[in-house]
Specification:
Distance between the termini of chain B: 32 Å
Shape of chain B: globular
Number of strands of chain B: 10
CATH architecture of the largest domain in chain A: Orthogonal Bundle
Helix content of chain B: 25-40%
Number of strands of chain A: 0
CATH topology of the largest domain in chain A: MetI-like fold
Radius of gyration of chain A: 24 Å
Radius of gyration of chain B: 18 Å
Number of domains of chain A: 2
Strand content of chain A: under 5%
Oligomer: heterodimer
Largest sheet of chain A: none
Largest sheet of chain B: 6 strands, mixed
Distance between the termini of chain A: 29 Å
Helix content of chain A: over 70%
């Protein structure tokens, strides 16, 4: 009887809670950005224009940089290093995380190295990476991004694999699972939210790695645009790549969120 | 009465903590073919451990457990278990959870689909095949757990306090469902509980264990005819007497 009732009321309750709060959320989000931009626009003229320019001037600079093609070239260069390094980091991080999370010997073998490397500020390693890769092509910047991204993915994956519910492991044993099915039915799905959280952290760190590597190694891409225009006091133009990096962050976070809905639909309850 | 013995527990000893804690020692128990045997005992007396040993999920330190003439060493496909914590995979929908044991047994897809549908219907979850466990109430989740175990059509059903974490009303609904399912097709069942009413209502016999180290204090035959419901059992003439006997044994009080 209770089931029939639940069945009848479930869809209508979902519909009632459906769209309108989401719309409200977005109004607040966009509204807060609009307020910041407006305040900035009106306060900017009272500062030294060498230091602060209003959003309207940045918008004009944005159009100029797009028309000259500088922004697209820089963005493409940056994206190549970011996407390349990010993918390498996810592959290595998930693989090592799974291996070290599941097997004690692997954990003991890798843990001191990972801890040591993780405690060194990654920025300090960037000049060394540049030197190792002879400052040539995308390789040193790809490696820098990978270095920045790999730890959150690795450590989160490891935790995810270790935190598998013991009750579920017992259920799997009780139903006579094979080792392969144990991975696909229990271990990997239960680690998935941890892996995705690690990947989300990796995006933020990877963007830092990308920009710093462009400052210190390549003198290309969005990072170099910032330095180039900062050095000649064109703050309107220097802000354009900064905003572009922020946009990259938002786009990649959105992609991961979309991916999460696809690979882990059972997590939707948390939203 | 020469009903064959399906499960026999012979002189079984189980210790924990490197032998420091004895859960049970020299325990003997027999489960007859087709009977519903309830194991009743105070919390922490090792009922769950006993059940895990019967399924080969935990090793025993001495003695042996035999099911259908084969000594238990690892989980067998002839035996299925229902867990107190439900043990559903949050990432599988209801029908995938129910199909789990069948998939592992490498049964043909068409048979799986047929059986999954049949057992989902039997536990009253029709219409919820595509729901994830988080969307279900506790009672509905345990219906899935029950369907998952029934779907492999085991010779023996082991139930570890399956309704222990449910609220009283839901528990009674599910107890009645289990009675109905058992009475439609009786199969050997071992049911762990610390509820006296539940043990009497569901069991053909009730084994009362003492507190640790667990020994069999007494085996009580429940002379209440089937078909039963929770209400019909509690209203039965024999119920009060049986309940008093059980509760004296559980609480360790001498007969009045």
């Amino acid at each position: 009887m209770s089931i029939r009732e639940a069945q009848a009321s479930a869809p209508s309750a979902a519909r009632r809670r459906g769209l309108s709060p989401r719309m409200g959320d977005w109004t607040v989000r966009l509204g807060s950005i609009a307020v910041v931009l407006l305040v900035w626009e009106f306060l900017a003229p009272s500062w030294n224009p060498l230091i602060i320019r209003p959003p309207s001037a940045i918008a004009v600079a944005f159009v100029e940089l797009v028309e000259s093609g500088e922004l697209q070239t820089a963005l493409l260069t940056s994206l190549r290093a970011f996407v390349g390094g990010f993918i390498i980091a996810v592959v290595i991080g998930v693989f090592l995380g799974v291996v070290t999370g599941r097997w004690r010997t692997a954990f003991n073998a890798f843990d001191p190295l990972v801890s040591a490397l993780y405690s060194v500020p990654s920025v300090a390693l960037i000049p060394i990476i540049g030197f190792m890769f002879k400052y040539q092509g995308d390789a040193p910047r790809v490696a820098a991004v990978a270095l920045f991204c790999v730890f959150p993915v690795l450590i989160n994956t490891q935790q995810g694999v270790r935190n598998v519910d013991r009750g579920l492991l017992e259920v799997a044993r009780a139903f006579n699972t094979s080792e392969r099915r144990l991975w696909t039915d229990v271990i990997l799905p239960s680690a998935t939210p941890f892996v995705l959280a690690g990947i989300r952290l990796a995006i933020g760190r990877g963007l830092i790695g990308m920009i710093v590597a462009e400052f210190l190694i390549g003198l290309v891409g969005l990072g170099y645009l910032i330095i180039q225009y900062g050095n000649v006091f064109r703050m309107d133009r220097a802000f354009v790549p900064v905003i572009t990096v922020a946009a990259m962050g938002i786009v990649f976070m959105g992609l991961i969120q979309w991916l999460e809905g696809r690979v882990a639909p059972w997590l939707r309850r948390e939203q | 009465m020469a009903t064959p013995i399906r499960i026999s527990v012979e002189h079984v000893t189980k210790r924990f903590a490197a032998g420091a804690v004895t859960v049970f020692e020299d325990l003997d128990l027999a489960v007859r073919d087709g009977e519903a045997l309830c194991i009743l005992g105070p919390s922490g007396c090792g009922k769950t451990t006993l059940l895990r040993c019967m399924h080969g999920l935990a090793e025993i330190d001495a003695g042996r457990i035999v099911i259908d003439g084969v000594e238990v060493r690892a989980p067998s496909r002839k035996v299925a278990m229902v867990f107190q914590h439900f043990g559903l995979m949050p990432w599988k929908r209801v029908r995938e959870n129910v199909a789990y044991g069948l998939e592992l047994a490498r049964i043909p897809r068409a048979t799986i689909d047929e059986r999954v549908e049949h057992y989902i219907e039997m536990v009253g979850l029709r219409g919820f095949e595509r729901a994830y466990p988080y969307a279900l109430s506790g009672g509905m989740q345990q219906r899935v757990g029950l369907a998952r175990a029934l779907a492999v059509e085991p010779d023996v059903l082991l139930m570890d306090e399956p309704f222990g974490s449910l609220d009283a009303l839901t528990r009674e609904v599910l107890q009645n469902e289990l009675l109905r399912i058992y009475q439609e097709r009786p199969r050997t069942m071992v049911f762990i509980t610390h509820s006296i009413e539940e043990a009497i209502a569901l069991g053909d016999r009730v084994v009362v264990l003492s507190s640790r180290p667990a020994r069999v204090r007494e085996v009580i035959s429940v002379d209440i005819e089937r078909p039963r419901t929770m209400a019909s059992v509690i209203a039965h003439d024999r119920f009060v007497d049986l309940r008093d006997r059980c509760s004296r044994l559980v609480l360790d009080r001498p007969a009045a």
